[in-house]
């Protein structure tokens, strides 16, 4: 629901280029799956993650797992409510569904730990920045957008998909700027991006039991934005 749309967009954008020469950054990479998928497709890709919990899990899966479905989790074992069938609570999930060590030997794939705003300060570095369920993790969403613009090469693309949950909203002693999607688009244009594509009401879920009686669903938005070429800004 979340990864296929952005993977398809990036593949279409760079369909006429050698993928090994296209550099992609995935901030908020979580467990690293989206970044791994880009690397599997032949792109040069780096994932970035701040959460130590995510980094520990992604390191285990990416660097220690060498066989398909070699481990089993019971993700709903503590979910005592809204179970239709008794067996729903003890439903196992095996992982990984692919062998992470099967990346081509020539692949360029890495994970970088740290705060996105602190780690990435070199302008004109990446051909594409891809963000999924990331934009609303910011204290200041404007700073995220400005940084994405700065680190993209002229002519580069930002592909975004997700909601606007704003993780720090209503948390005491935490700064949080909460813009509507309408306001986000105004900031995007003000920073200098050109919006190439916009799609709303994309149904997406997040870490929930598909068999549960209670279901949450986001109506996510997708944006494809381009940083103008230098010749277009003069």
Automatic annotation (TrEMBL):
**Origin superkingdom:** Eukaryota
Recorded GO cellular component terms are: cytosol; nucleus
Q: Is-annotated flag, keyword NAD?
A: no
Which keywords accompany this UniProt record?
Answer: Methyltransferase, S-adenosyl-L-methionine, Transferase
Which SMART domains does the UniProt record give?
N2227
Gene Ontology biological process terms, A to Z = carnosine metabolic process; methylation
Report the EC code(s) recorded for this entry: 2.1.1.22
Keyword Transferase tagged: yes
Instruction: Please report a single Pfam family linked to this protein.
Output: CARME
GO molecular function annotations of the record? carnosine N-methyltransferase activity
UniProt family annotation: Belongs to the carnosine N-methyltransferase family.
Q: What is this protein called?
A: carnosine N-methyltransferase
Q: Which organism is it from?
A: Magallana gigas (Pacific oyster)
């Amino acid at each position: 629901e979340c990864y296929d749309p952005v993977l398809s967009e990036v593949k279409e954008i760079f369909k006429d280029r050698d993928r090994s020469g296209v550099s992609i950054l995935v901030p908020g990479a979580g467990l690293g799956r989206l970044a791994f998928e880009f690397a599997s497709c032949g792109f040069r890709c780096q994932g970035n993650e701040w959460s130590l919990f995510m980094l520990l899990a992604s390191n285990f899966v990416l660097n220690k797992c060498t066989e398909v479905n070699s481990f089993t989790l019971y993700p709903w074992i503590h979910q005592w409510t809204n179970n239709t069938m008794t067996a729903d609570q003890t439903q196992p999930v095996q992982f990984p569904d692919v062998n992470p060590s099967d990346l081509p030997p020539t692949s360029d794939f890495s994970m970088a730990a740290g705060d996105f705003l602190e780690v990435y300060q070199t302008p004109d570095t990446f051909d594409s920045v891809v963000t999924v369920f990331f934009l609303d993790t910011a204290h200041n969403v404007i700073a995220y957008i400005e940084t994405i613009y700065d680190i993209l090469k002229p002519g580069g693309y930002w592909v975004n998909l997700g909601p606007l949950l704003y993780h720090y909203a209503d948390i005491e002693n935490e700064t949080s700027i909460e813009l509507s999607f309408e306001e986000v688009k105004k900031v995007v244009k003000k920073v200098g991006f050109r919006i190439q594509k916009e799609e709303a009401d994309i149904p997406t879920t997040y870490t929930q039991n598909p068999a549960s009686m209670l279901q949450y669903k986001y109506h996510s938005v997708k944006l494809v934005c381009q940083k103008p070429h230098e010749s277009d800004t003069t």
